[in-house]
Amino acid sequence: MKDFEFYNPVRVFFGKDQISKIVPHIPKDVNIMLLYGGGSIFRNGVYDRLKEVLKNFKVIEFGGIEPNPSYETCMKAVEIIKAEDVGFLLAAGGGSVIDATKFIAAAARYTMGDPWNILAKKGPVMGALPFGSILTLPATGSEMNRNSVISRRSTGEKLAFGSVHTFPRFSVLSPEAAGTLPKTQVANGIVDAFVHVLEQYLTFPVNAPLQDRFAESILITLIEEGPKAYANPADYDAMSNLMWSATMSLNGLIGCGVPGDWSVHSIGHELTAFHGIDHARSLAIVQPGLWKALREEKKGKLLQYGARVWNITNGTEDEKIDATIAKTVDFFESLGIKTRLSDYNVGPETIDKIVARFENRKWLDLGDRGLTTPEITRKALEYQL
Prior knowledge:
The protein is α/β, with parallel strands linked by helices. It has helices at about 40-45, 45-55, 70-85, 95-105, 115-120, 175-180, 185-200, 210-230, 235-250, 265-275, 280-295, 300-310, 315-335, 350-360, 375-385; strands at about 10-15, 30-35, 60, 85-95, 130-135, 145-150, 155-160, 170-175. The strands form two sheets. A six-stranded parallel beta sheet has the order 1-8-5-4-2-3, with helices on both faces. A two-stranded antiparallel ribbon has the order 6-7. It is globular.
């Protein structure tokens, strides 16, 4: 096991009527900016409940945050924050809204030039506005981590950052609100959480059995409970299990002491940047292709994953690896998520653009052990044409 430091200060309120508990955790006498996306909080009751709970605060609303939130939209919020002397942010929605709020919180306090530097140049985040979140869509785990991914429409880029200053003060997790989601969003959430686990688990053995078992338990729970929530999002028990699994997938716990990969995300972000493919669907395309390209290098963990998660124990090693990849693809496809580039009308020219972009950025050794070179990226995507 590798050395590690674990820190997670997020207070979690999980379940029904938890919004009533947030006021003591908001500074007194501040102006609050309420951030949300396309308006689902008006339909699922979250907005009305927040207005009631926050009646003694001045609340400035900022809606319209996109899936794959844009830098351009975020900077509009920053302008309002400065003009209205906002002192606390509250994100209500899914991971995109929370990611946007993290960047907005950091950008509002950034004093070293263009806040895009936080993403493009890894400019240091020295502080951020305090914020909380109300989660209504299980997927990204952003409600309990420091990470954020932002797109810039003008340049067609999608980049990530994280800071100790961008943990939420608190997060309310509402399976009840998530019960009103469209099935496509539920499916995206299941796959997003599933690949988050794989990025931290399916690397190479480092004698970390507890972390492996944590990761495997989340994967198995997603396999068992995810389809129930997909079939009936209003199934409160299934949605609760999905939501907590998604949170645990990326709150730092299962990544303690083990290597991470994250090259699936790096490649997937480019598919989203170039073609607007939903984040989870981009991951479902890339993950099996990368395993095919690195099947020998990842053999140990692929065999362990197949045996422990999918009960694949018969056949040669190659046969078991093939079956493991096929089982994963079948799971994604059973949720209505296609796994081929051709399913999204994406051809070889996009592969060329992604490889060229990685070479230009000097991203020559992504993933665990630097295995994901531009050549491996090309090979992985060509498998998925």
